[in-house]
Amino acid sequence: MAHGANTTLRASFVAAAVVVAVLLLASAVQAAADLGAEVGDAPPPPTVEHTVRTGDNLWTIAEAHTPHGQDVRMTIDAIRRLNRLETSTIHAGQVLFIPAE
Question: How far apart are CA 92 and CA 3, in angstroms?
Fold first, then answer.
């Protein structure tokens, strides 16, 4: 009988430790999110939306939105980052965010 009581006590202790660990982790995640929102997060850059048409590619889209004298490749990189594109492949109908600056 004592063995069963020890097992129950041990299981209760483990369950309580798991609950405490989950609460601490959730608290830490929330604190990190709050801190990130307050410190060091730049506001998102201004963007315009562009719906990809047949025949569009990142170069032609970026070229149309790159200020005179600036490198089109930098705009392509910004478009890829803003839209989380892993490749330069785009499709007709796709909506892309383009840097407005």
Answer: 69
Between CA 75 and CA 52 the distance in angstroms is: 16
93's CB contacts (< 8 A; 6+ apart) are 51, 52
**pTM as predicted:** 0.57
Residue 84 pLDDT grade (very low, low, confident, very high; cuts 50, 70, 90): very high
Q: What SS3 class is residue 51?
A: strand
Cβ distance 65 to 99 under 8 Å? yes
Looking at residue 89, what DSSP letter applies? -
d(CA 16, CA 9): 11
Rounded to an integer, what distance in angstroms lies between the CA atom of residue 11 and that of residue 17?
10
What Cα–Cα distance (Å) separates residue 21 from each residue in 5, 24, 30?
24, 5, 14
